[in-house]
Design brief:
Layout lengths: L2 E7 L2 H4 L4 H8 L3 E7 L18 E5 L10 H4 L3 E4 L12 H8 L6 E4 L2 H9 L3 E4 L16 E6 L7 H8 L6 E6 L13 H6 L2 E4 L5 H8 L4 E3 L9 H8 L3 E5 L15 E3 L12 H21 L1 H9 L2 H4 L11 H6 L6 H11 L5
Parallel strand pairs: 1-2, 1-3, 3-4, 4-5, 5-6, 7-8, 7-10, 8-9, 10-11, 11-12
Helix pairs in contact: 4-14, 5-14
C-alpha cells in the first residue's frame, strides 16, 4: 500500500472533475491525501515540504514550488498531469514551453490528451497516454432540438459565436448557464430578442449538482463551453448522455469527436452555420462510442495504477535522455494533425544546448 499525495487545483473541489483518479487509487488499496492549491486566486501554493514524505506525489495541473530544482532531484516518483488548455501554443511561446517543462525532466507525465502526450515526449519526458471515458448516464430527449450552453469565457466563446454556428436553425428549447470561469470577466445573457427567437432560458448557479444535471439532461444538443479542454469532462459526460456535442476543432474535443459521425466540429477561426438535421442520431452514436470507450478505460486501469506506482528511475532505465535526442524519433510517430505542436518544439530544441 502506497501513501499518495494528490496536489490539485482547488476549483476542482467544487466541480469534482478529477475525483475519478483518487477513487481508482483508493479502490486498489492505496491511501490518497489531498492538497488543494489556492495560488490561482492569490492564495498559497502547496509547499513541497508537505508532500515530500509521501511515496508518490501526483500534481494535477497545479504544482508545488520547486525553487529551481527538478522534481526528480527532490523525489523519485512524481507524476505530473498537465491539461492541454493550460498551454499557449504559438510560435512566439516556444521558449516559454521549454522553461515550463524543465522542472519535470526525469519525472513522469500522465497525459489525458494525445497533444499533451506528444509535447511531453518531444520534451524528453516519459508520458503515459490514457483516454478517459465516464460511465453512461440517463439518455436524453430523442425528439426535437433542445440545446444547452454554459458561457464560461465569453470573449473566447460566447453566445455571439454560438448564434453564428446555429445559423437559421431554430431550437425547441435552449438553456444557457451564465457562470464565468474564475479570473474571467462576468458573462452576459443573450438579448431579449434572441431569447424569444431561440426559446432561451437561463440560470446562474445551482446549490446542488443534481439541480444542474436536471437542466442539462433536458437537452439533446450540447455546446462545448471552451475552445480547448484538458480532459474535457463536460463534453464527455454529454456524450455519455447521448447528446450531440458541438465543439471547436481543437484538443481534446477533436480527439473524441469525428465530425458527422458522433458529433459536430467547427473551425473557431471561420465560424459557419452547421447542419443539425442528424443531431439526435449523432448523439446516439456518441453514447455508443462512450460505452465502448468505458470498457477500454476499465481494462487499462491496472496499467494506469502500475505506471503511477513505478519509480521514475525504473521508467527511464536509470538515464534521463536529453530532449534533442528524442525529437527525431518522436516526430516520426506524431499524427498529422499534431505536426504543428511538435514543430514548435523542434524550433525550440534546435536552440537548446547539449
Amino acid at each position: 500500500m502506497a501513501r499518495i499525495a494528490f496536489v490539485d487545483h482547488s476549483y476542482h473541489q467544487r466541480t469534482h472533475a478529477t475525483m475519478f483518479l483518487p477513487e481508482i487509487l483508493r479502490a486498489h488499496g492505496h491511501d490518497v491525501d489531498f492538497f488543494w492549491d489556492e495560488a490561482w486566486i492569490g492564495g498559497a501554493p502547496v509547499p513541497w515540504q508537505r508532500v515530500a514524505s509521501h511515496d508518490v506525489v501526483i500534481m494535477f495541473q497545479s504544482y508545488c514550488p520547486h525553487e529551481g530544482h527538478t522534481y526528480r532531484s527532490l523525489h523519485n516518483n512524481v507524476v505530473y498531469i498537465p491539461m492541454f488548455d493550460q498551454f499557449d501554443l504559438t510560435p512566439r511561446s516556444s521558449h516559454l514551453l521549454t522553461e515550463f517543462w524543465k522542472p519535470f525532466h526525469g519525472s513522469k507525465v500522465l497525459s489525458f490528451s494525445t497533444a499533451v502526450h506528444v509535447l511531453a515526449n518531444v520534451a524528453g519526458i516519459v508520458s503515459h497516454h490514457v483516454r478517459y471515458y465516464p460511465k453512461l448516464t440517463q439518455s436524453v430527449a430523442s425528439e426535437g432540438l433542445h440545446g444547452f450552453f454554459w458561457i464560461r469565457r465569453e470573449r473566447e466563446l460566447g453566445w455571439e459565436h454560438i448564434r453564428t454556428v446555429l445559423g437559421d436553425t431554430r431550437f425547441d428549447s435552449f438553456h444557457i448557464h451564465l457562470a464565468g470561469d474564475p479570473g474571467f470577466p462576468p458573462v452576459r445573457a443573450p438579448s431579449a430578442d434572441d431569447g424569444a427567437l431561440y426559446n432561451i432560458t437561463t440560470s446562474t448557479w445551482f446549490n446542488h449538482r443534481t439541480d444542474f444535471e436536471k437542466v442539462v439532461q433536458r437537452a439533446n444538443v450540447f455546446f462545448a463551453p471552451r475552445l480547448t479542454e484538458g480532459i474535457g469532462q463536460s463534453f464527455l459526460e454529454a456524450m455519455s448522455r447521448g447528446q450531440c456535442v458541438i465543439a471547436a476543432d481543437n484538443p481534446t474535443m477533436n480527439e473524441y469527436i469525428v465530425h458527422g459521425v458522433n458529433g459536430l466540429i467547427y473551425d473557431p477561426k471561420r465560424l459557419e452555420p452547421l447542419d443539425f438535421s442528424d443531431a439526435v442520431q449523432l448523439g446516439r452514436q456518441a453514447r455508443s462510442g462512450v460505452a465502448a470507450g468505458r470498457i477500454r478505460w476499465e481494462a487499462m486501469e491496472l496499467g494506469l495504477v502500475d505506471y503511477i506506482l513505478t519509480p521514475s528511475s525504473s521508467v527511464y532505465g536509470g538515464r534521463i535522455p536529453h530532449p534533442r535526442k528524442v525529437v527525431r524519433e518522436v516526430r516520426r510517430r506524431v499524427p498529422p494533425r499534431l505536426k504543428h505542436f511538435a514543430g514548435l518544439w523542434d524550433r525550440t530544441m534546435r536552440k537548446t544546448r547539449d
